[in-house]
Every structure is written in C-alpha cells, then in structure tokens.
C-alpha cells in the first residue's frame, strides 16, 4: 500500500474519531455537503454542542435548552441523531414536537445524512428495508433490526417505542423534545397540562434504561410551560438548564463557562443598557430592540413585548389575567357557514410608542349562533395611512358567497381619529359605515359580554399570524385596567354586542 493510501486512511480515521468526539465538528462536517455552504457558528452553538457532548459522555443526565427563535437549535439536534448512530448503530431515538411536519422533516434529514456517501464512507450503517419512512426508520446490525428513529407529534402515539437500548453501555440514544408546546396553546391551561402530562407519564416511561437522557429544547412561552414543569422537580432525574437570551450583557457573559466567554465578541454595538445581540450576524441589535418594543419578525408574525420577554429573552412574565381566559375561546380549522360578517374598528388617538394601536377586526355570525373571529389587523397609523389600511381591510373581506355570508358593514367608534375616519371613508366605499357610541367604561362593557365568551360561543382560528398577539392581550386584561393594551379587545366587545347580545333581525 502506497503512502497516499496510508495518508488517506489516516485522515479518514482522524476525521471519524473527531466526529464521534465533537458534536459541533460533526454538525459542520455534514452541513456543508448537504446545504452547499458552511454552517455559521456562533458562540451559542458551541455552548449547546458542548452540553450535548456532556450528555453523550454521561456528565449531564438530562438537559433543558432555552433559545430564541431561529437559533439553529433543530440543526444541532438533527445531527445528534445521525451522530448517535455513527457512534453506535444500535442507538434508538424518540423525537417529539408539537409539530408533526417538524418531526418528520428532522427524521428525514437525519436519515438522509446517514444514507449519504460522506457518512457511509466513515460509518457503513445500514438502513433497514422493513421500515424506512419519514417518521420511523431502523438500522440493521448483523442482519437484525437494531437501532431506530421514531418521530411523532406530542399528541401522537409512542406506545411500544423506546429510547436507548440495554444492548450496550454508555450513550445509546435519547428522548428529544423539540418545542413540545405550540406557542398559541401556551395560554391554555388545559393545553399546558396536556403537554406536561405527556412528558411526565408517557415520555419519561419510554426510556429503555434509567440513564437514557431526555433533552428538552424550546423557546420559553409561559411561566407554567414545560421548561418550568421540568425544572421545578416534576420529572424525575437530574436536570441541567442552559438559557440563551437574544439580548445579552456582561453579567450574562461572565456567568458562562470560561472557554465560552472567550468566544463571545465584546467589541460589538450595544444599547444604552450595555446589551448586545447574542448573534449579530443573524439578528442585529437594532432589529431586536425594535422587536422588544413590539413589531413584526422576519416572517411577518407579530411580536408583542410579552412574546419578546418569553420567546426571545427566556423570561416569561406572569400576565395580569383571570378577567378573560384564552381557553374560553374554542378553535376552528375551517369556517362554518356564516349568516353574515362585519368589520369592527377601534382607532387610536395618537401613534406614539406608549399609545394604543388601531385595530380592524372581521368576524361573522354562524348558523349555529356562535361568533367566529376571522381576521385582525393591528398597527399604529396616521390619518392618511389609517384610511388606506381601512380600505385595504374592507377590500380583503368584501367578497360574498353563500358560505361566508355577506359583509354587512364596518362599525367604527365615533371618537377622536374614528370620527375622522367615518367622515372620510363613507365617501370612498360602498360598504355601509356605522358609528359606535360607547357610553360605559371598558370594564362594564367587558362584564356585559363575558358570559358569551365563558359559554364558548366566540371562536378563534386554529392558526393565524395575528393569533398569538391577540391571545396575549386577552390573557393580560386586568380588572383595574392597568394592563398595557386592550385595543383588540374593544372591537371584540363590539362584535359580540352586535351579533350575540342583540336579538336576531329579519335579515338574520
């Protein structure tokens, strides 16, 4: 054998050993051929990868990781599956999330890594032909099905599945919980309990052996979310938690492990409080500060101050609540047949930072005599833009058919900027415009309609880009009216009054 062959074999051996030893190296090694560009490594990736290595070595028994959206967390966990099978083809993984599509994508990606030429040249792990699907696939050892990867939604069945194996010592797989609770469900006590119960009763019993680790990775969502449930001693075992906020300061950096501290850049832009972006390449300080004030993220989803505190800063606040509960609002996937629809508007007096928003809300009365909220648009607009947004919202919902019902009118509070909007828009649309006179205080108006909500007669869509922000506002309403905003609740009250609280007319 010539020296070139010897050198090549030695290089492969060294590469294989380093991949098995270092999670970040493995991730970078298999990211490039799959994606066509290098994995952009930030200090938090090194931090998470180090902890994953400690899980594999047994130094950390169970791990909770809290990170902001878009942090690259799923990439690291996807590679944990492939790397675990590289180290031991008998490894068994359970991968669970609120999203069935997410777990299937992760499972399929891990399988494709294992099947790749690059992987097979280092570890000739065989994929079983008996079970080779997105959500479930196996490896074979000596002709027998041995390792497996099984993914499911948190509501799915995991009966008969195990993570880890008794066949070998050391790391033989893990239970991975990747965002076990849907953000929109975080304000439902029953949904939180269901997710927590799943972790305790089902997931924890799926260990093949007592030292099979559980890794929970998620954005914080609520003071009573799965992270809190685990870290307050409800799930047996030793747990370690790492938390990565989107805005970091010197106090945070200084409590990181020393070798990670050295990786965090200090000579970057900071705000007046000494805070910097945790990942300037991905999230600029300016964009994060804008989100902190309330705005839209890169995907167009609304980010409230509560959302930022929880999902981005890993520090959820207890909302004022109990006046109106989000769990009182049933969810619909598809709209039922509606009798009619309306638009209700609440306009702000000013658009400065601390003033209310303007809101347009479209809802319809079903033949089941329930109210269905269809769409909400919220923003801070001066008079010319306010008119433009009103016309755009009307045009969006003007279509009429026998299923969704006729759009009857737009109702606007006859006060401040609302008065000006009424006077202007009647000239620019054929839709009837009604002026709303609000004589009672907001608490009294709330108490007048709350029984319809408690009776679960006001429905919300199962998914909508505005939904989380709407729910946060509802949950935050206080009886002493010390909450930040109620601009979405006001038109909701009007919609309930005009549809459920009024006696039907001949037009209904």
Give your account of this protein's structure.
The chain is α/β, with parallel strands linked by helices and 508 residues long. It folds into 3 domains: 18-243, P-loop containing nucleotide triphosphate hydrolases (Rossmann fold), CATH 3.40.50.300; 247-312, no CATH class; 326-499, Nucleotidyltransferase, domain 5. Helices cover 38% and strands 20% of the residues. It contains 17 helices and 19 strands. The strands form 4 sheets. The chain has an 8-stranded mixed sheet with strand order 3-4-5-2-6-7-1-8, sandwiched between helices. A hairpin with a 5-residue loop joins strand 11 and strand 12 (302-303). It is elongated and about 85 Å long. The mean pLDDT is 88.
Question: Any key phrases for this structure?
Answer:
seven-stranded mixed sheet; 19 strands; 20% strand; Rossmann fold; 508 residues; 3 domains; elongated; alpha/beta; Nucleotidyltransferase, domain 5
How are the elements arranged and paired?
Blueprint: H1 3-21, H2 23-35, H3 43-57, E1 62-66, H4 73-87, E2 92-97, H5 100-115, H6 117-122, E3 126-132, E4 136-141, E5 144-153, E6 175-178, H7 189-203, E7 214-218, H8 226-234, E8 239-243, E9 247-248, H9 250-254, H10 258-261, E10 276-277, H11 285-293, E11 295-296, E12 302-303, H12 305-312, E13 331-332, E14 338-346, E15 358-366, E16 371-379, H13 383-397, E17 406-413, H14 417-425, E18 433-436, H15 442-454, E19 458-461, H16 467-476, H17 489-499
Parallel strand pairs: 1-7, 1-8, 2-5, 2-6, 6-7, 13-19, 14-17, 16-19, 17-18
Antiparallel strand pairs: 3-4, 4-5, 9-10, 11-12, 14-15, 15-16
Helix pairs in contact: 1-2, 2-4, 4-5, 7-8, 13-14, 15-17
């Amino acid at each position: 054998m010539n020296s070139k062959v010897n050198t090549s074999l030695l290089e492969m051996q060294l590469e294989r050993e380093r991949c098995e030893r270092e999670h970040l190296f493995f991730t970078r090694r298999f990211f490039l051929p799959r994606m066509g560009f290098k994995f952009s490594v930030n200090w938090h990736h090194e931090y998470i990868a180090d902890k994953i290595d400690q899980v594999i070595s047994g130094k950390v028994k169970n791990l909770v990781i809290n990170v902001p959206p878009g942090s690259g967390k799923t990439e690291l966990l996807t590679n944990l599956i492939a790397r675990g099978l590289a180290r031991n083809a008998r490894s068994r993984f359970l991968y669970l999330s609120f999203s069935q599509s997410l777990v299937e994508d992760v499972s399929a990606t891990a399988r494709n890594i294992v099947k790749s030429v690059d992987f097979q040249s280092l570890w000739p792990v065989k994929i079983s032909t008996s079970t080779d699907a997105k959500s479930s696939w196996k490896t074979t050892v000596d002709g027998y099905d041995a390792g497996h990867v099984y993914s499911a939604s948190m509501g799915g069945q995991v009966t008969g599945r195990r993570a880890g194996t008794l066949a070998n010592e050391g790391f033989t797989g893990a239970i991975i919980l990747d965002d076990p609770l849907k953000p929109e469900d975080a304000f439902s006590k029953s949904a939180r309990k269901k997710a927590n119960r799943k972790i305790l009763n089902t997931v924890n019993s799926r260990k093949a052996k007592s030292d099979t680790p559980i890794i929970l990775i998620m954005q914080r969502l609520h003071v009573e979310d799965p992270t809190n449930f685990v870290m307050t001693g409800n799930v047996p075992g030793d747990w370690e938690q790492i938390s990565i906020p989107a805005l970091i300061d010197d106090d945070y950096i200084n409590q990181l492990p020393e070798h990670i501290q050295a990786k965090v850049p200090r000579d970057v832009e900071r705000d007046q409080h000494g805070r910097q972006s945790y990942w300037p390449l991905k999230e600029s300080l300016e964009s994060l500060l804008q989100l902190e004030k309330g705005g839209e993220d890169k995907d167009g989803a609304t980010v409230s101050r509560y959302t930022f505190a929880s999902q981005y800063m890993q520090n959820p606040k207890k909302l004022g609540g109990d006046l109106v509960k989000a769990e009182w609002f049933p969810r619909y996937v598809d709209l039922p047949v509606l009798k009619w629809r309306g638009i209700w508007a609440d306009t702000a007096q000013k658009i400065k930072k601390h003033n209310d928003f303007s809101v347009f809300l479209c809802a319809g009365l079903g033949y089941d005599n329930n109210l269905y909220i269809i769409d909400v648009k919220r923003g801070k607009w001066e008079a010319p833009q306010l008119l433009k947004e009103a016309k755009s919202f009307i045009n969006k919902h003007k279509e009429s058919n026998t299923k969704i019902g006729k759009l009857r009118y737009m109702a606007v509070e006859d006060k401040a900027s609302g008065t000006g909007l009424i006077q202007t828009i009647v000239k620019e649309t054929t839709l009837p415009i009604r002026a709303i006179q609000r004589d009672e205080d907001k608490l009294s108006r709330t108490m007048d309609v709350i029984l319809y909500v408690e009776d679960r007669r006001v429905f919300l869509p199962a998914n909508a880009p505005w939904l989380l922000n709407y729910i946060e506002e509802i949950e935050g309403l206080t009886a002493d009216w010390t909450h930040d905003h109620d601009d979405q609740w006001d038109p909701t009250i009007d919609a309930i009054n005009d549809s459920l609280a009024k006696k039907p007319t001949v037009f209904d």
